[in-house]
Specification:
Number of strands: 9
Radius of gyration: 17 Å
Helix content: 25-40%
Distance between the termini: 52 Å
Largest sheet: 3 strands, antiparallel
Shape: globular
Keywords: DNA replication, Plasmid, Plasmid copy control
Strand order of the largest sheet: 7-8-9
Number of domains: 1
Organism: Buchnera aphidicola
Order of helices and strands: HHHEEHEEHEEHHHEEE
Family: Belongs to the IncFII RepA family.
InterPro entries: Plasmid_replication_init_RepA
Function: This protein is essential for plasmid replication; it is involved in copy control functions.
Strand content: 15-25%
Structural class: alpha+beta
């Protein structure tokens, strides 16, 4: 008998920590996420994921179908909610994001799975350049990941009109809206180049 995968077809972000995000601009972006047409988004439709170890292009085997796209948008909402504008990091673990986005599952034996979120991050969001993950050890010597949001992340979810209203945010991330973007990954610096403009993002 074929096994039917268990998943939440309509995930919804429900934060356990209320009023964590106080930046009005970030809250406005979260509110307007539903208005963005991700299906026809130029960045999603024109860019290819990159192997972070080799720098080679990856062939995207799994496209963002309806369910994956819904999960993607929900995770974006969670990342923004726990985003620290000063450190550019998400103050939440991947497990916490999976739980609060309704994307973690519990098996009959009681084991928790956060595969939907962990794979979305490692196999899509990170190779596409929307985020960077920094590994660290907690007090129990367990290796965890801290998520860093890149300028490309905000280029994906914001408009020129929104950015023009928040110059401090725009300057902090040095965000430029370009129609043609080429990504060049390195260990510490990510450069986004167009024919006429350059964008640099330093993680130091």
């Amino acid at each position: 008998m074929k096994k039917i995968p268990v998943f939440n077809a309509v995930p919804k972000f429900n934060p356990k920590i209320l009023n964590f995000q106080k930046n009005k601009f970030i809250l406005r972006i979260i509110k307007n996420l539903k208005k963005i047409n991700f299906v026809q988004n130029e960045i999603l439709t024109s860019m290819l994921p990159i192997n972070l170890k080799t720098g080679n292009l990856l062939v995207r085997l799994k496209k963002l179908n309806k369910h994956r796209l819904t999960a993607f948008i929900t995770v974006i909402q969670g990342m923004l909610y726990y985003f620290n504008i000063d450190t550019k990091k998400v103050e939440s673990s991947i497990e916490q994001l999976a739980d609060e986005c309704g994307l973690s599952t519990i098996s009959k034996s009681g084991n928790k799975s956060i595969t939907r979120v962990s794979r979305l991050i490692s196999e899509f969001m990170e190779p596409m350049g929307f985020i960077k993950c920094e590994k660290f050890k907690n007090k129990k010597n367990k290796i965890l990941k801290k998520i860093v949001l890149t300028p490309l992340f905000f280029m994906l979810i914001t408009t020129d009109k929104n950015m023009s209203k928040n110059l401090i945010f725009k300057q902090k991330f040095q965000i430029l809206k370009n129609k043609h973007v080429h990504i060049n990954f390195s260990k510490d610096i990510m450069k986004y180049n167009s024919n006429s403009e350059k964008l640099k993002f330093n993680n130091k």
